[in-house]
Design a protein that fits this description.
Radius of gyration: 19 Å
Largest sheet: 5 strands, mixed
CATH architecture of the largest domain: 2-Layer Sandwich
Distance between the termini: 22 Å
CATH topology of the largest domain: Nucleotidyltransferase, domain 5
Number of domains: 2
Order of helices and strands: EEEHEEEHEHEEEHHHHEHEHEE
Number of strands: 14
Helix content: 25-40%
Structural class: alpha/beta
CATH class of the largest domain: Alpha Beta
Oligomer: single chain
Strand content: 15-25%
Length: 310
């Protein structure tokens, strides 16, 4: 039975057909998320209808930005990047529109599940998955289980308070927090202050010969490392998997890994730091596995318990 899978982000919707651990007919379109949650759902409907015209579909799997209640398929919280998305019952809406069973999961959790089953997390039982992009997201796997927390919102790595003196929750809930200093967006913002023509991560890393740019990048790497050292010391994972387009930059990845090993206690240095293996398709693989409920390999149980098992 084929599943259409959508990975909904603030910039784009990636989509594909998932069946038996394989993706086909992979596509991508703009999400227009800034127009709001209702507009985003209309875009998602259009994507699914396009697949319905070509494939016999049995399920819909949705990996999405925002904190998600996977039991109800509801958005618990979404920031200002998607106005009006908080509280939206995505599963109910899509099931009413298409008459197909729908599963909904947070995008980083879905990516972590994908890496656990098919990618860099295969064989790992205690690992962290961190994505560094516009913000910073995380997924925690403990003893082979996706750890959700008491209200399905565990893994908000980006909300770690790093600079309490800059925190004013009335102005910005994420003021002084990790993602304000360690995200790819934070890096680009800092670089643009001195080199306005460098408007994205690729341009930044292509300009490392400039001493002022390299100094900013090195300081940004230090910000990432500070958070990772904290997480490693708290959770003692066997592995940390780093995702997000910026991690394709060897200078960033190797700089982070080498610095983390220098800064953690010797008894924690068994941790393996590796790149995500599935790139920007990890969320689609993960939500496909959730929807399919495949128990023949390392799989995410479809009873919503969050268990990952062999």
């Amino acid at each position: 039975m084929k599943t259409v899978v959508l990975d909904i982000g603030g910039t784009s919707i990636k989509s594909a057909v998932y069946q038996d651990g394989e993706l086909s007919d992979v596509q991508e379109c703009a999400s227009d998320a800034g127009c709001g949650g209702s507009c985003l759902m209309q875009r998602a409907e259009t994507v699914v209808r396009c697949y319905q015209e070509k494939h016999s579909l049995g399920r819909i799997g949705i990996s999405t930005t925002g904190q998600v209640d996977p039991v109800e398929g509801r958005i618990l919280y979404a920031n200002q990047n998607v106005p009006g998305y908080t509280g939206m019952c995505v599963r109910k809406h899509m099931e009413e529109v298409f008459g197909l069973p729908v599963v909904v999961e947070n995008d980083v959790n879905a990516a972590g599940i994908g890496e656990a089953i098919f990618g860099a997390g295969v064989g790992e039982r205690d690992f962290l998955c961190m994505t560094i992009g516009t913000g910073i997201g995380g997924a925690v796997f403990l003893d082979g289980r996706l750890y959700r927390g008491s209200s399905f919102s565990a893994g908000e790595f980006g909300a770690m308070v790093m600079y309490p003196g800059q925190r004013d929750v009335k102005e910005d809930m994420f003021g002084g927090c990790y993602e304000k200093f360690a995200s790819a967006a934070a890096l680009v913002e800092r670089v643009r202050r001195v080199c306005p023509q460098l408007t994205d991560g690729r341009a930044v890393f292509a300009s490392l010969e400039r001493e002022n740019v390299r100094a900013i990048v090195d300081d940004w790497i230090g910000e990432i490392v500070n958070g990772m050292v904290t997480l490693i010391h708290i959770l003692n994972p066997s592995s940390v998997i780093l995702g997000g387009g910026v991690m394709e930059q060897d200078y960033a990845f190797h700089g982070i890994r080498e610095s983390v090993y220098r800064k953690i206690m010797p008894s924690f240095r068994n941790v393996v730091i590796r790149k995500a293996a599935l790139g920007n398709r990890a969320g689609m693989y993960g939500i496909g596995a959730v929807a399919e409920g495949n128990g023949s390999c390392l799989a995410y149980r479809s009873d919503q318990s969050g268990c990952v098992r062999h």
